[in-house]
Write a structure and sequence with these properties.
It is built from nine helices and 15 strands. It has 387 residues and is an alpha+beta fold. The chain has four domains: 63 residues, no CATH class; 103 residues, Beta-Lactamase; 75 residues; 134 residues, Heat Shock Protein 90 (2-Layer Sandwich), CATH 3.30.565.10. The chain starts with 8 loop residues before the first strand and ends with a strand.
Amino acid sequence: MLTGALPSFTLEYACHSPTQQRWFSMCALPLGKNPKAGVTLTHTDITAYKQAQDGLRLAAVSFDIAQAMVVLDKQHRILRANQAFTQITGFSEQAIQGQTMDVLHSKQQTALFYETIRSDAATNGWRQWESWLQHQSGEDFFAHGTATAVKSPEGDTTHYVVVFSDQTELHQQEQQRVLHEATHRDALVREVHHRIKNNLQGIGGLLRQFASQKPEIAEQMQLVAGHLNGISIIHGLQGRHDHSRVRLCELTREIAQATSAIWQTDIIIDIPPQWVFRVVAEKEAVSMALVLNELLVNAVKHGGKAQGHVSVTLRQGTGTEGVALSILNAGHLRNNLDRPTAHHHGLALIESLRPREGLTVTLTQRGDQVHTLLQLTAPVIALDTQN
């Protein structure tokens, strides 16, 4: 400049201290028309400017990531979207600008689900999520991502940044793994049920053999064998169906057939041909088997055997899943008026086994017959959704 070769001169340079990074800009200008008269030098602190430039450069690099990224305003309208967003969703940045993320919502998720993500991000500043989204083509894909609120220095939300990736393949692999494990578990559980059933039936056979050798305790042995057989039937049914399902009609039929064989008495089963299957709650299955066994044994012992048969009827009960199960046998109800010293062990056992909710047992006299009515509803039974 002093020789007239340059009209002016500028230079940006770093001048860091031990505790702070700093940048300055030096500007040299001539004092007058004659360069040899001298120059003026000014030094300006441009640290904030340099940091802002670095921030913009980092933001640009961060925006160009493999994950989809969209920037929303505080009304959740899309301002910007990166190239990965276009590749994953099929929407270009121009096509998506000004719209909300609703265009990506899948029918596999409820509107409340998406609203909860927005609400959590606004309230807590951040929300991780995974859900189904919809591609521009209409095909769904499974995404995993985050929604982050951007705050002003005053703490007000000014923008939202949503980042997500397509995890459909991993999700499908996980679903296959869970299905495989469940199938393997079901096979093992069914095998265990079969073994328990066989063992219980073997014990029951030994008890019946022992009863034939000891007539004086034959009835007691038959009762115990009947209870064991009821439990073995439960395990047999659980081993037959997936997810250890026990259908009420199958349980009733098999308990009746086993009781008929043990006590040599016909038990007639009446189930409508278009019967809608109900399943017994797993935790109540054994109790229901023992209750049915005890009621049928009582029906046989207290009149059915003498008259030659007992009848069992299944009909629609209260509500969609409700069932009315009736047992009819010849005989008369015993009570403490005609037998003051009687101990009704069978009824006491039924009462102790009966689920507290979903099952009522009522015994009434109908002429020369005893009518036992079981009213079954949820939570003891439910419609069989597997059919």
